[in-house]
Request: fold
Amino acid sequence: MSRSMNNVAAHRRHKRVLKRTRGNYGARSRLYRTALETYQKGLQYAYRDRRNRKRVFRSLWIARISAAARLCGINYSTLMAGLKRANVALNRKELADIAARDFQSFTKLATLARGE
Reply:
């Protein structure tokens, strides 16, 4: 009985990995084993960073809101507590957008949060 080889499937698998690691430096895009390690590590980073992206954006929004609040003479925590007390249902993403694009409206929100 002749020896069974896995040439076609192995070649296809190697091509798939090497195609996905195109653009990496040196052996990371040319040698199968190194490319496979690079590819798997990249998938791990992608999985982790899909969660980290949410944290990063939230901290960015908070920084923008805080900076705008300080220009209005109020700090971030007082602003957020005041808006909650005033039943203003805006999330941090929307508040940061208002702070960046329409400062007059943000000033009105800050005075509302102060309770004036």
Summary: The chain is about 75% helix and 0% strand. Residues 6 and 93 are 53 Å apart (CA to CA). Residues 32-71 form the longest helix (40 residues).
